[in-house]
Amino acid sequence: MPNPLLQRLKATMGIYESRADKVYGLLAEYADPGALLHAAQEVRKAGYKHFDTHSPFPIHGMDRAMGLGQSKVGYITLAGGALGLLTATWLQWWTSAVDYPINISGKPFFAFEPSVPIMFELTVLFSAIAAVAGMLALNGLPRPYNPLFYSRRFARVTDNAFFLHVAASDAAFDMGQTRQLLEDLGALGIEVIEDREYSDI
Amino acid sequence: MPLRGVLSGLLAQSHEGRPTKVEGNPDHPVSRGATGVFEQASVLNLYDPDRSRSVLRDGAASTWAAFVDFCRQLAIDAAGKRLVVLSEETSSPTAAALRQQLAGRFPQLRWITYRAEGDDPVRLGLQRAFGSPYRPVYHFEQAQVIVSLDADFLGPTAHNFVHATRAFADGRRLSTPQDAMSRLYVVESTYSITGGMADNRLRLRSSEVPALAAALAAKLGLGDAQGAGARFADHPFVAAMAADLQAAGSRGVVLAGETQPPEIHALCAALNDALGSAGVTYLDTGEPPARPQADELADLVRDMNEGNVDALLLLGVNPVYDAPAALDFGAAMKRVGETVHLGLWVDETARAARWHLPRAHYLEAWGDGRSYDGTRSVIQPLIAPLYEEARSEIEVLGALATGLDQAGYDLVRVQWRGQIPEPFEQGWRKVLHDGFLPGTAYATAAAALQPVAPGPLPTPAADELEIVFRLDPTLLDGTFANNAWCQELPDPTTKIVWDNVALMSPQTAERLGLSIEYDAGKYYVDLIEVTLGERSVVLPVWTLPGHADDSISVTLGYGREITSNRPHRKSPFWDKDEDTDVYGRGALANGVGQNVSVLRPTASTRVALGASVRKTGETYLVVTTQEHGTLDVEARPLVRMATYDEYRQDPAFVQQREEPTPREPFEDYPALWENSHPAGTAAMKDNPYFRNQWGMVIDLNACTGCNACIVACNSENNVSVVGKQHVGTGREMLWLRLDRYFISHGDDEALPENPQMVLQPVPCQHCENAPCEAVCPVAATVHSPDGTNQMIYNRCIGTRYCSNNCPYKVRRFNFFNWTKTLPLEVQMAHNPNVTVRFRGVMEKCSFCIQRIRRAQQRAGLEERAVRDGEVRTACQQACPAQAIAFGDLNDPESAVVQQKQNSRNYAMLAELDVKPRVSYLGRVRNPNPSLEPTHT
Amino acid sequence: MDTVQTQDLAPHSGDGYHEDPPLITGDLSFHEITDLVSYHTEKRTPTGWLMAFGVASTGLMILLLMIAYLFWNGIGVWGNNVPVGWGWPIVNFVFWVGIGHAGTLISAILYLFRQKWRTSINRAAEAMTLFAVICALLFPTIHVGRVWVIYWTLPVPNQMEMWPQFKSPLLWDVFAVSSYFLVSLLFWYVGLIPDLGTLRDRARSALRKRITGFFALGWTGANRHWRNYEKAYLLLAGLATPLVLSVHSVVSFDFAVSIVPGWHTTIFPPYFVAGAIFSGFAMVMTLLVIARKVYGLENLITLQHLEKMNVIILVTGTMVGFAYITEFFIAWYSQVEYEQYAFLNRSTGPYAWAYWIMMSCNLLFPQFFWIKKLRRSIPFMFVTSIIVNIGMWFERFVITVTSLHRDYLPSSWGYFSPTWVDVLTLVGSFGLFFTLFLLFLRFVPMVAIAEVKNVLPQADPHYYDDHGDGHAAHLPQPEAPRTQG
Fold first, then answer.
1. Distance from B697 to chain A by nearest Cα, in Å?
2. Disulfide check for A28: which of A182, B78, B667, B819 has CB 3.0–4.6 Å away?
3. Max Cα separation, chain A?
């Protein structure tokens, strides 16, 4: 029995549990970003939580339409930066003033002036690594296996197709009603995604 | 060490049975602890990989035993045998005794002393003046006015170099403005380092100097019968000298150089006599008057050619190479039944001789001799001969004289019995311990001067080209031609390495239409054919400001051909060893420079007139260690100078030259990091080394620029030799260099015809705020608690940033693995206390840290502080002028602190606030006001 | 289905999205853009590419041989000496680092300034940055005397229990340049992820699918992902921007922190950064002018893009020229003999020829860009971009060599002449650069597909308010500023 807390965490990453009958969710394609945005808004109004839109590029206002808050990447990056700054400062102070102090050009063993460049560089480096690592973590990437890949037409999501996917794990999910709702929102096509648990390549 | 008939008192340092370094014997009355270039370099001659290793008979390997047999054969009816010994100058009592024995055995023995450079005009001159060949000793320290007539008495080739330099420097030291200072007049053709020390200098063809001397004599009331000096009768320079000498009276000295004919030396003796000079005394060596070598040699060659010589013994001489080509000594040797050559190398003469005997180096064999003042010493070997066949000259003489194979040790002991007070063993041990037998100096001659009329003096035409032959300041007469240190030792004035050149004044070069092209950092000079009589030599031309016009100076000792048993190094195309190995092309000396002695018409020619020069049209690459030779002291006061009077008025003249115009003197600026300076932190203070803070002062007034310090440094610190090509690309490794500047005032490019020359020794300055340290990414060069800037070879990764950031450019980088290809013999010369540096690391002067640490350890064991003078750097110890003071800045009594308090003390580039630990004492010149400015 | 909207897309339409001429010309649809770019990574290897690659990899071979020769014999195979301890290797290092600046600059700074036009060129520019920085990193590494202990410049415990000397500008360099490389790499890769997804979804062979799929990390273009992705990308841009500026400042410290006359000057950091951008843009120009022709990307990389870049070249070139003149003024004003001589020697000494090449290439030539006609002339800008890079190489040569060869003590003055090894090593470094760049062109989308789609008018949902079926007509206007340019 999977841990519900973990499930909720995974849900924020767009990773949902498939139903016992292997149904993973419904995938509807829409004509254009405008239609997709509208659909997302409606689906949310209808009280769905476990749904997501897929598009070749980010769509403005979609976060608001889906009711998603601010991304957390910023905080992770900040933490990384702070760590970098501390590391640099400690490294330079400890090695040159504590562990092995040497008289270099008669300069103080440790001073801030000459330490600034490395402090800066490590701060940036650590922040950047944190930003990327944080982004991937929050997105649950890398995720080589994703039931959506079973859909043939979903391959066009990185080209010119716009999809809305409602996961079966959603409390409000009902095969009939949900499909109806998506159709009303002008889906060009709808298919049921099943978690076949094998790779087709 | 025996050199040119004079013994210098040395102490040799030995490691694991290998002598690696020689120092002057501090107790010895002549050397007084100092040494010259050649003493220092002699160690490397011992380890010369091209030394001859076996006895040769007609070029085929033979044995010493076979030679002893030969000696017995030769002794059969010795009475009828016409044996001639052509020997280098030797002062060895043992040799003298053996010579008597030999004469006893071979009644017709003829003994000729041979000098590569020709006669000793000093001896001949004094012989004229006093009837016997006295030996002059000059007491420059007492002199007030010194007049040098083309005498390079401060040059490394001077006969009594160490003593003369010391004495001269003693007469120039100024600790307070009250101190007196001698005045030196120099009249010379080339620009010698003596000329560099001159207060008033006149550039004049050597062949004209006699006339000037005559004029001077006339002015001083000696009369000038033939009126030879007429041309200079009212020359201002002569007038000034005469006036000064008169004023100085007994405190005036006049001396002539080796380029001058005996008459002039006699004349100088007369002059000094007239002045009642206390500046010179004469030693009676007890030698009989000798014929001029030229005559002796001429007769000998004639006899040889006529077959009137049965056997010829050549003791350490190389006449086939350095006798005048006119004599064709080599051909003459072929006419002699038996020729025996003893020498360190299978050289030109060895190849011409039927017997060649490998000679034992003085550090390998027992011997004895007398120093310049006659003090007797025993030469003790520190190592058995590297090559078992090697024998010393006394052993060879012994074999010839007795037919027995006697060891040098016995020969010397036999000789010394009777010389020293009984009991012999005790006396003998004492002599060995002290290194000399006190009180054995020559007696001072009661100089009974015989009046001499100067003979006919040469009167050269106005623009007649003269050639002056001189001993080379780095190779001497070629004895040191196969010595890597000497070959790469920059000529003191031209800074040229690995070559000899035809030196002339820029004006003459221009007149002859000769050019020196500077292209991309290299000097391509015209090759000229210098012709004298029917012989000529092709030499690269070089110009020296202040050289006399219409005069060409050449040096002996180059163009050697030594037979080397070592193959040429071959390496695959991807490997540079072949091209970085200076020992890789057979004997070092071969193919370096040209042998100019072939030009000399007679064996005593020093100056020849009527030379002609022809441009060959080819150019030649001449390599120097100093690309840019002039210094505008107004813009860059690196060397600070004043006249004696200016100094009297303002003892602190050096301070006023503080560098460019910060409104308030930069000393008033707040010191950097004074609160948090590491020197003040516990980490440093707790260190035992912290007690001593090392510093150095170099007195530019004493330093003559003789190069002794550089060779001493090479020898002490295993400094690599890189060869002509790489010196040319700026990769020389000298830790200590002598910067030679021609002083220009205001304009760096335009030099006066007779500019002033200064030489400035530049070691690492050991800055307290060393710029090199801060830029090293791996802390490979750091500051020691005792205040020296240290280079940590095994930490260095070789970014070369430190060298870039060194304002004094004293750092040296191992661009290749110089030591990888060193022959085993040469490796034996290394000082085991100093790391041999690997490719890719930086190196530089360390203040001889190994010596400092040894002293500190000793002091530590004896639980006392390091005494002043206990640590002496190699350069300081060698310096004959005592120009370098080194010691502990924390010890207020130390010599270095005294010197630092001298008002002439200044630091180079002090305005950079790097706080160098090395400082200089400003140069003070004492020119005759009536002649100022000299630079005309 | 895909291209429907683009048919009835009229230039005047939309709620005011094309005040300025369209960045992407030719009325391309999403799919056409995908095809246009992806095609070049999927088609059969063209002979032209093979030939170019042959040449480039030959250069790389030469580089490797020269390095082998160097390691075997030592630094002496170069022309370096005392006083000129740093010769061509450091010149090349600074040269390549400089070039490595435009990429991240174009990406990051223009991104922050919402310069939509960057989207067409940033991918190639970033790639160029990476490869240039690789070339740059090579030189300081091989120029040390004992390369086998180069790791002592990193704070790793070693048998001597010693640490790097953090006061040394060289060490700052180590950190600055390597951080710059890593951050640029991340920035580039993050930008690549969606396009890798595209390649994955277009892949026909299983192998290609696996490889692209591996690097695409399972990207599905989910909005929950776009949300974090865009934030991260924005942050990276924000981080990279000061980094770009810092890197060349730190490089300039190598000189400015020393006491060598001609190096020791405070103007270096800004002047080096300007120079870096200058040379970097020139190099991007050189490459793009070729690439857009060869790959027919004229519609993505338009004349408008190139002109904007030329303007930047003009501006930075003028800044650099101004710096040259300022140096002279300061030297005169300082009244320091050594400083004054250093600059006098530069312009009149043995290396004057190098100085005047630098002056004419960097200060003079870019001035022609004041003329709009020339600014928009492809052949002219191509030639100029090459001239500029020649000039910038000489700038580094002048700074490094002419300052060193004559400093404080006239006795130690010297001269530097390069050896054949110096020359071939420089040539070889270009081989390395172009080898990498050609591989990039062949196997990676050279234009950021997702980003370009994003600047199309039809990428905005509100574009459909009066087009298509009007689904979104009644949506409120987003008051939040567009986070995607």
1. 21
2. A182
3. 81
